[in-house]
């Protein structure tokens, strides 16, 4: 069963939020520790939350976001990041109009799985990447 989330709560300061400009959906990564973080998917048609074991994998996501943010125009193909247990996968693709589509796959084995798309803009990736780097520096660097 998908877990409910209290939408009245504000996003924590050490959280990475990506809001879709077309669907009203939101992807939030928060509650970071060295070993895990919490992912929340919110929207009028969905609400899910799951703890994701991260260890060092978050560094790979930060690097991917920085790499994608460096593009001034759309890129060819799909860039993907998955958690160590493949219970969270993010696939990024772009179009010639500067839209970035993030396919989010969230899986709780033997219970439920969810797949949806978040649409943002190429110009937003730099801010998202900076926020991810800031979180990484705060939590994972010693």
Strand order of the largest sheet: 1-2-3-4
Strand content: 35-45%
Helicity, in percent?
A: 10-25%
User: How many strands?
Assistant: 8
Rough outline: globular
Report how far the terminal alpha carbons are from each other: 37 Å
Largest sheet: 4 strands, antiparallel
Rg measurement, Å = 14 Å
Give helix and strand order, one letter per element, not per position: EEEEHEEEEH
Mean pLDDT level: 87
Uncertain residue ranges: 1-9
User: Helices and strands: which structural class?
Assistant: alpha+beta
Query: What's the tally of helices?
Result: 2
Overview of this structure, please?
The protein has 142 residues and is an alpha+beta fold. The chain is 20% helix and 39% strand. The strands form 2 sheets. The protein has a 4-stranded antiparallel β-sheet. Strands 5-6-7-8 form a 4-stranded antiparallel β-sheet, with helices on one face. Helix 1 runs antiparallel to helix 2. It is globular, with a radius of gyration of 14 Å. The protein starts with 15 loop residues before the first strand and ends with a helix.
């Amino acid at each position: 069963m998908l877990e409910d989330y209290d939408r009245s709560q504000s996003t924590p300061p050490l959280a990475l939020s990506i809001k879709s400009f077309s669907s009203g959906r939101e992807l939030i990564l928060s509650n970071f520790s060295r070993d895990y973080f919490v992912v929340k998917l919110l929207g009028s048609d969905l609400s899910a939350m799951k703890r994701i074991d991260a260890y060092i994998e978050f560094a790979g996501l930060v690097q991917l976001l920085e790499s994608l943010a460096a593009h001034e125009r759309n890129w060819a193909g799909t860039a993907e990041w998955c958690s160590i247990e493949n219970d969270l996968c993010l696939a990024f693709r772009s179009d010639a109009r500067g839209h970035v589509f993030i396919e989010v796959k969230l899986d709780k084995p033997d219970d439920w799985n969810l797949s949806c798309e978040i649409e943002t803009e190429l110009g937003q990736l730099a801010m998202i990447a900076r926020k991810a780097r800031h979180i990484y520096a705060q939590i994972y660097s010693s």
